[in-house]
Write a sequence for this structure.
């Protein structure tokens, strides 16, 4: 999966809690896995149990990376990319199910989220400042279409029905891994924690009776905060055009690709999604980024589980209905517009 540099957001406790037990404490650990920064913070009654729980989360992240990395030639995902053009490739149920779930997101987002984006996406190399020519995009683009991926539920096989197809789970795998991490912690009796992988996080419980205060960063300055949201028991993902990118002749080439054009999506600077699970928020953050606020809010405002915050190229910050401050409406005034706006973010 992909790299992660300075992360999109940071967690700040609203208040620090007084430990009830002699050895109870907040514990944290950071490791580089899945090409990004994986972070776990938890409240443990016993440091031994806390360490064992963090070990288990990190081990599972490595397991998922080995399964789904498109950088590792031996991974089952790479095997699909190598062979699914010539015949069905069988994979284990876990990988099959995540690929299937990805197609569900493609369906509900009219193809804005599409793991076959990689058929064009592989032509970009952000570290080496390489992007495809228009001609290369024109040739590769017909292979971008999730409907040409044949999934056989009975045999757990994947087959590509168009030459040149590739898939990449970088847009959903970290969220999936974060959800797994939270499930592991819960099963071990942990009740307060946060698990983060790259731009995807999930908060378990609260911060000892108070919400966590989560910041969304300024697109051009990681030290500046655009807004803070109090959260507990929820997941959050941010996709930004400042994570993996390079600029050339005034154009920003970054890692979120519009499957319809093969170019980096340009309608927003960042899209943040809130929902119960990180698999949901990860998938939906690409969608929101590609579709842009208008279309994405139309979809998100119809789904009560989801909320969104957009930072627009002109500095406006837009919120979904669920995050809007309850503004008093003068008698007789029409209902407020579907989108709430805060003052522009200064450059
Ligand atoms: P992070 O990987 O740091 O969490 P994002 O959640 O924004 O960042 O995911 C970006 C990744 O999503 C890209 O690196 C790529 O692997 C994948 N991706 C890019 N465009 C799309 C798309 N249209 N549909 C599905 N996945 C995508
Ligand atoms: Mg992500």
């Amino acid at each position: 999966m992909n790299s992660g540099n300075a992360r999109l957001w940071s967690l700040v406790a609203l208040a620090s809690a007084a430990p009830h037990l002699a050895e109870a404490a907040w514990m944290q650990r950071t490791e580089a896995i899945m090409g990004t920064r994986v972070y776990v913070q938890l409240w443990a009654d016993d440091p031994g149990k806390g360490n064992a729980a963090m070990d288990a989360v990190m081990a599972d992240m490595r397991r998922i990376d080995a399964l789904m990395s498109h950088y590792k030639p031996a991974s089952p995902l790479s095997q699909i990319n190598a062979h699914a053009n010539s015949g069905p490739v069988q994979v284990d149920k876990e990988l099959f199910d995540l690929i299937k779930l990805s197609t569900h997101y493609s369906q509900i987002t009219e193809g804005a989220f599409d793991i076959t984006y990689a058929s064009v996406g592989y032509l970009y190399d952000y570290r080496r400042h390489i992007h495809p020519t228009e001609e290369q995009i024109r040739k590769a683009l017909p292979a971008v279409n999730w409907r040409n991926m044949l999934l056989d539920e009975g045999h757990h096989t994947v087959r590509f029905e168009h030459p040149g197809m590739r898939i990449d789970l970088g847009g959903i795998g970290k969220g999936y891994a974060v959800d797994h991490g939270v499930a592991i912690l819960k099963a071990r009796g942990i009740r307060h924690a946060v698990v983060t992988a790259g731009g995807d996080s999930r908060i378990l419980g609260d911060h000892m009776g108070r919400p966590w205060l989560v910041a969304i960063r300024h697109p051009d300055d990681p030290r500046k905060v655009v807004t803070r949201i109090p959260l507990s028991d929820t997941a959050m993902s941010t996709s930004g055009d400042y994570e993996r990118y390079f600029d050339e002749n005034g154009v920003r080439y970054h890692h979120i690709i519009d499957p319809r054009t093969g170019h980096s999506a340009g309608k927003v600077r960042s899209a943040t999604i809130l929902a119960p699970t990180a698999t949901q928020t990860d998938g939906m953050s690409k969608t929101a980024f590609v579709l842009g606020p208008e279309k994405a809010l139309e979809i998100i405002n119809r789904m009560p589980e989801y909320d969104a915050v957009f930072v627009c190229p002109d500095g406006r910050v837009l919120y979904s209905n669920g995050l809007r401050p309850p503004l008093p409406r003068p008698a007789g005034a029409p209902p407020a517009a579907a989108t709430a706006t805060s003052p522009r973010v200064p450059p």
In short: The helical segments are 47-68, 76-83, 93-108, 118-121, 134-140, 173-187, 278-291, 293-300. Residues 174-175, 198-200, 237, 282 surround magnesium ion (ligand 2) (CB under 6 Å).
